[in-house]
User: Fold this.
Amino acid sequence: MIALRATEYCDARTVKTEHGITVANYTAEGACAGQDPQAQPGTCSNNWVRYMVVLANQKITPPVEVGGKGGMTDTGVRISSGTIKVKGRSLGPKDSMCCPSVPETKTFKISPSGRIHQVLP
Assistant:
């Protein structure tokens, strides 16, 4: 496994708690994965990725990717009965990288072992 070294864009972090489940979405920027170990985290690329971690039943899940540059930009989270819906927008065929316009929702379930998996449509 390669360690991910990046910086967090703290202003974009979102945290929501409902029904005893806390969801935190955060942004890792400029990841230095498998690159020069002397490079300062956050300076290795012009990429960003959104991750989600969940606190449920006194367990913190490993991070799961929910979006990023060229993918979905999340705009909201709904939590209900062990299901997490992450709403956002993805790039359409005529969108520039800054401005996704296509509505998208990703659904995730928390397993009894405390892991998150995406429910595919």
